[in-house]
Write the structure tokens for this entry.
Amino acid sequence: MWKQAQSLFAEEEDEELQENLLYETDDLCSLSSTQRLYAFGICSLAGLVCMFLSMIVFAIPIKFAVLFTFGNMLAIGSTTFLMGPTRQLQMMFDPVRIYATSIYIGFVVLALICALWIHSKFLTMIAILCEICALIWYSLSYIPFARSIVSKVTIRLFDTEI
């Protein structure tokens, strides 16, 4: 009986320890709010520059894919400076947007595989188009009711459902 009681308390302590470890990682990189805003701005600007440069090399799909994907990842990662890595991951894998996040990450990986390993311009462009669509759908998941509005508009315009 005593061992069962100890095991119950040990499980509760393990859960508390795991929760504390998650929140301590945010404190390890403790930056002031000004530093966080600067880091957010720099990272966002670097992402936009990469995306702009990718438009310049649009004729070379492999370079385009690498620059565009890296720019997207910088832009999305920049919000980590505002809310912290734990909160960012919690929001990305929230049940409301877990599918959008998974599909977006999948197309990012697919675009990089097509560009860097397969070296297929056609497959790279298809993967980039799918990545852009997935990014739009992922971004809409942060705006209340945006995805349902887009679905309703799509149904009315094209007589189909997303």
Remarks:
- Residues 46 and 137 are 23 Å apart (CA to CA).
- The mean pLDDT is 83.
- The two ends are 56 Å apart (CA to CA).
